[in-house]
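Many introductory courses stop at the sequence. We go one step further.
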Amino acid sequence: MNLQTPKPMSSSLLPVVSTTTAKEPFHLLRYFTTASLIVILLAYLASGYAGGWLIYGSFLENEREESENIADAFADLATSSGFPPEMWGKVNFPGPLKNKLLIEMEDFGVVQFTLYGLDGRVLEDLTLEGKAKRTNPQLVDKNSFHTASQGGKTIDWYSRVWTPLLPFVRSQGVTETYSPIREPHPGKVMAVARTNRDLAPVLEQVRYTLLTWMLVVGLVCLAVFSILWLLVRKADRIIKAQHQDLKDLNHRKDEFLAICSHDIRSPLTGVQAGTKVLLAERKAPLTEFQREILVENEKSVRVMLDLVNTLLDMARLEAGAEALHIEPVEVNQAVRDATMLLKGMLQQHHVTLDLQLAPSEVTLQGDRLKILRMISNVVSNAIKHAQGKPVTVRVVPKENGVCVSVIDRGHGIREEDLKLLFDKFTSLSHKKKSRDDGTGLGLSIVQKLITLHGGSVHVESELGKGSAFHLNFPLQPPPQTA
């Protein structure tokens, strides 16, 4: 008897041509650069804003002190010119004194100086012409006046530009300060002076101070960003190199797996063919013992061939070398054909099958053999875990597709195991390994095949009550697979 050895598997079945787009790796450097630039820009603006207000606060404090000193200097000038405080309000300042005060005002940048009695009466009002708009001396800020009459001092800043923008815009403005004027002894407040100063020279100084501050902050931010960027770039290169190494190793693993699986399948097919010939008893009858051995051998070879074919399918899918042969597929008939192949398994596990088909024909465009493989994989998985209870296969037409649901009433799946269900070589903790369990690749293959068709699979399960697998097929596959 001559047994023909099966022909070697065609090289077209090996994973050499990729038809799917590989997932783009995570670009650490790109995301870090974008995120860090945004963070550093916000930090820079915040520090500039905070620095502006700190410098502004320091400037106001200095301005309060300066305004009080100016008021005291004007009072001393009036006294030294023969115009003591007891004469204020009774007689106007004489011309020579006014001229001296106006010169002092110009030197100090004061555009208007108003002297008030403690009762709010205007004692004297001097203004530099053409320097600023004259403020009505009768319009008094009551709160500021009261504070100054009690010995305190207040200041308001009237600027045309928002403070944080001062480094970028040249601005003009004035301060309005209410300062107390005291007697030399014992320091009792005898009048209140309102001083309006021109801020243009001071604002220019503040502007350069803010520019210096923001320049320092910008250089610090740039230095921090540069150091971090160099560190992240180094880490990104290491990660990319490791990612490429893993891709290369995975590709070589898939090639090795495909070649080894093929080399194992060829002799197994020959052993299976020889066993079938012996079981046919064409030359001589077999003893009962010989038949039992051959039957077990044939079962073992069939199981091994199924495992090898599963590994080959996974290798092709991983490499993107699996192509779809599109043709019209009637879903009700596909379900009948897929479950027909599982009659022996149903009898072995003492499970009945309840087919709930669509009331009318539902035809989709897809790869018939792969659709049969998906349905049989999910149904056989349900039979294994049904614990002798019925398994339902339901076909439900949808608006743009069809859903094939496989429902069992077995032990179910724990919630924490659901996310591992479609991983390769997964063995869930509640399962007991048996001869039927296979490689753990069945559901992973189902997920990849249905994704190739442009569909999806999802699971509903409750521990102790069973599971429901829903295969959602579109009526038309994606254009790149058609």
